[in-house]
Amino acid sequence: TDAIIIGAGLGGLLSAAQLLQRGKRVIIVERLNHSGGRFTAKTFQGVQVSTGAVHMVPFGSSGVLATMLRGLGIPHRLYDADVFGSFHVHGKQYRSRGLLGVLTFLGPVQSLGLLRLGRLMFLTALPEDERNLPFDQWMARYIKVEKNPQLVAFFTSIARFALSVELDQISTAEVVHITKNMFRFGAPGIVQGGCGALTRQLEQQILAQGAQIMHSCEVLQILHEEDRVVGVRIRQKQSQEEQILTAGIVVSDIGPRATDALLESRRVTQAEVLKQQQPEAEDESNWPGESVPEAVGLKVHILSDISLIPHKGIMYCLDTRRIAGMVQPTNSDPTLAPAGKHLLISHQVIQSNNVEEERALAIADLRQLFGPAFDQHCKVLTMGTYRGEWPVNRMAQGTDRGGRSAWQGLYLVGDAVKPSGYLMVEGVAQSVNRFLDLLAE
Ligand code: FAD
């Protein structure tokens, strides 16, 4: 074996496909009994219920992931959004074909504010001292926040939906970089068959090309001699049998925290991470605090008898307490739900340590967004929180570490090492591009 890949998430699968294309022999070791990580789905009551993603690829069919899939010859189809988005504000849904459509709900004063910010973001270079300023502070330098509530809510809901962060957790340079990429690559797209169809295709191709995927098998240790990695120690879940695999290249798709632990032969468990992140019992403060690097969220899958969002893009929610945005992916691919039904998925950032309250606020928001239609026509299928070792983003946008490790032969891929400006699975694909550059050095 030339390369061992830890984790069969999207980052691990793409890395395997790229290495195979370069004639390497590859083994993927995956703890779970299936591939795909946070980018796959299970069928539940006829619905594609995902393990993470809302079936959406941020830069659609022109993006980095789509380009990589084409280069690898992986069959797939993406349905690009037909609108820039819609915006639920003032109790109504405003549909916006292009960015300027948002001026209809912003009104004259706030529209001027948006144009001013837009000019500073895109037509001039950001001054050095503004690059690392949190975006909320930067905005407050150029507009009066109290006079621009919907404009602030516009940026807040996009950051919460697309990145699962608040505006004080992301730098201005990162917001500018991401927004430029959104314009450069284009609208997000829904994956035909859902995110599980995409990772299954990748898996099939990798297997057909001779790679081995060891499911239900956990990497317990990354082995090294001096400063070079030489292989891994693994354990089969069923037999509890341990085995050593050797290779000169180890690619980790599990983020720096878990990778560092494996180098010391330690395991990072979900329970341990959550315990460390819980505030002291008497501490009333919210979490995640600044010390928590990952982005956390709550996602709801809803099945509806009637269509509630009339387009293929994202509906950003500016007048809700928690839900930042929603999609109705069955508008793109009706087979994601039983015939005649509509799948809706909402996403929000978890803002307090009280998960029950967060769930109740999600339901209250859904009632506010859709009125009596929600109770008459909708059924909540699942409501899940994503944090610890199964977060929305392993490292919050803009805080990611590079893919190079201190160990020769050890590389990191995945959403903990997304290069700046590339969000979610676009960042995963771009991390694989960077890994290939490092490998070629
Ligand atoms: P993972 O998918 O986490 O893969 C890592 C794999 O490693 C896992 O399968 C895990 O089981 C395995 N593993 C861990 N430890 C070990 C070990 N010791 N030994 C062996 N195997 C191990 N992105 C989008 O682009 N669009 C979206 O719509 C979107 N929505 C999201 C909504 C939610 C609620 C969440 C949670 C995420 C969303 N994302 C979205 C983000 C996207 O899902 C992730 O960025 C992406 O799937 C991460 O892939 P990965 O390969 O980096 O990691």
* CATH fold field value of the largest domain: FAD/NAD(P)-binding domain
Considering the protein shown, what is the CATH homologous superfamily of the largest domain?
Answer: FAD/NAD(P)-binding domain
- Radius of gyration over all CA atoms, rounded: 22 Å
Supply the number of helical segments.
Answer: 13
Spatial strand sequence of the major β-sheet: 8-7-16-17-18-15-19
Q: Can you give the helix content as a percent range?
A: 25-40%
Structural class estimated from helices and strands:
alpha/beta
Instruction: Give the amount of beta strand, in percent.
Output: 15-25%
- Could you say which small molecules are bound to this protein? flavin-adenine dinucleotide
How would a textbook summarize the main sheet? 7 strands, mixed
Q: Tell me the distance between the termini.
A: 21 Å
Tell me what the CATH architecture of the largest domain is. 3-Layer(bba) Sandwich
Query: How many structural domains?
Result: 3
Rough shape? globular
Kindly provide the name of the CATH class of the largest domain.
Answer: Alpha Beta
Mean pLDDT: 92
Strand count: 20
Low-confidence stretches: 279-292
